[in-house]
Structure formats: structure tokens, C-alpha cells
Recover the amino acids of this structure.
């Protein structure tokens, strides 16, 4: 199984984290790879096997995994007693200070974001596609970490996994108009009258504006749409699996 670790987060011994790829899953009916999402017309048994495989590889209990029914919102959910593998909450960000409770965000082009507060021992994940970035889900997540867990931004480390980059993210004029309205023009490159969205530029600026230190932010340089042999890409193939970012307090 090919998985990646953020060098930044890897230096902390009290968390486990990873970003997965397509590699290493069961030879399932539909995807023949490590698809982790149940809602993408894969065989549920295969998806569950992939989760078991990943849990065993990273050393957590699958039953205690909390993933999300992601809806492209900016809803942040604090993990509760009833949240588990069989009962995922509907939201686009999760926060917990509970140990042995892995949090997972699933993506195919959208940004998987992992958060770690080394002082308060709090972790979070967020799903930021275009909508999540436009709605500033990272700010919502950080504000909730601050208000509910007394997190301070200077103690928070952030890793953003592979996502679709400006090279491949062409958008129409209507999105450009929306971007301008939101004062996010800096996040669009215009080339030969075509518009390309730079989600990482938007996310980075939002994180810095919240007070996250630049040296505490780690962004994968890989584009999912340029590397479809390695990552799922929704832009490339509408019907596709999902890879993940996952983080747990030990
Ligand atoms: Zn690309």
C-alpha cells in the first residue's frame, strides 16, 4: 500500500496520520484499488475490506473511525459518542481531542486537510473543494478549535494532501464572476481567456489570515488530475473512488 506522510506532522510522536493513494486495495468489482467511499457505486464489501486494510496498516480500530458524509458545506462537527464507522456525521470538518479516534476526510480532486494542535492535543480534518474554499471552511474549523478547545493558531500544524492544482482546474466565466464577488480574484490565473482556479493559493491565504504560521503549513505539490494513475480524480472520471487523509491522537 502506497501511503504518504507529511514531514511536518511526522515529527510529532503523539499522532498517527497518512494520505492514501489508489494503491493497495482489494481487487474489487469496480475500482481494483483502495477506494474508501461507500457512495460511489463500489461494492460495499470491497470498500469495507479496504477500510480494514488501512486500519491494520496504520494501527487503529476501524470501528472507531469517524468519517463524514461530505456535502460541500462549511459545517464543522465536534466528534460525539455516537459517531463511528457505522454512523458518520454529515459535515465537512471534524474535530476531536479524544485519543484512538481516527478522523478521515475523503477526496478525489478536493483538498484533504489535516490539523494538529500540539499544545491542546486536538486534531481536525476538513474537506475543501471549491465550495469549501469559497465558504472558508478552514476558518470555521480553526474558529471552532479555538472556541471549544482553546486552541491558539500559532500551535496548530496543517497538512494539505494532493488535490487538483491550477494546471488542471479550468473553470467557466460564472465561477470567475463568483470569485470576484468574494474578493478571491488572486486565486484565479487567466491564460488565453481561460480561467484556472488555484485552490491552494486561496487556502494558504485563508490559513495565514487566521494566524497559522507559514512554516507550520505543508502543502502537497502533487496534482490529482495530472496523476490519475496514483490518485482518484473526479474531473478526469466522473465516476471514481475516493482516497483519504486520516489523523489520530495516540
Ligand atoms: Zn494538473
Amino acid at each position: 500500500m502506497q501511503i504518504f506522510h507529511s514531514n511536518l506532522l511526522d515529527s510529532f510522536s503523539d499522532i498517527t496520520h497518512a494520505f492514501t493513494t489508489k494503491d493497495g486495495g482489494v481487487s474489487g468489482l469496480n475500482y481494483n484499488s483502495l477506494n474508501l467511499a461507500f457512495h460511489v457505486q463500489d461494492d460495499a464489501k470491497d470498500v469495507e475490506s479496504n477500510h480494514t486494510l488501512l486500519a491494520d496498516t496504520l494501527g487503529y480500530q476501524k470501528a472507531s473511525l469517524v468519517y463524514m458524509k461530505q456535502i460541500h458545506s462549511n459545517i464543522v462537527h465536534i466528534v460525539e459518542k455516537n459517531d463511528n464507522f457505522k454512523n458518520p456525521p454529515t459535515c465537512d470538518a471534524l474535530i476531536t481531542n479524544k485519543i484512538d479516534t481516527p478522523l478521515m476526510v475523503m477526496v478525489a480532486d478536493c483538498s484533504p486537510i489535516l490539523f494538529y494542535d500540539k499544545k491542546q492535543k486536538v486534531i481536525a480534518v476538513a474537506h475543501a473543494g471549491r465550495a469549501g474554499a469559497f465558504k472558508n471552511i478552514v476558518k470555521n474549523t480553526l474558529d471552532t478549535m479555538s472556541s471549544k478547545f482553546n486552541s491558539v493558531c500559532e500551535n496548530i500544524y496543517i497538512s494539505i494532501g494532493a488535490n487538483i492544482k491550477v494546471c488542471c482546474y479550468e473553470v467557466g466565466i460564472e465561477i470567475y464572476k463568483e470569485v470576484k464577488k468574494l474578493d478571491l480574484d488572486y486565486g484565479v490565473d487567466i491564460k488565453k481567456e481561460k480561467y484556472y482556479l488555484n485552490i491552494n493559493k486561496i487556502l494558504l491565504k485563508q490559513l495565514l489570515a487566521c494566524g497559522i504560521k507559514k512554516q507550520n503549513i505543508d502543502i502537497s505539490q502533487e496534482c490529482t488530475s495530472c496523476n490519475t494513475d496514483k490518485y482518484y480524480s473526479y474531473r478526469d472520471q466522473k465516476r471514481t473512488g475516493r482516497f483519504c487523509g486520516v489523523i489520530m491522537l495516540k
Observations:
- The longest strand covers residues 111-117.
- The helical segments are 7-10, 44-58, 130-134, 137-149, 173-181, 199-210.
- The mean pLDDT is 95.
- The domain at 3-164+216-249 is CATH 3.60.140.10 (CNF1/YfiH-like putative cysteine hydrolases).
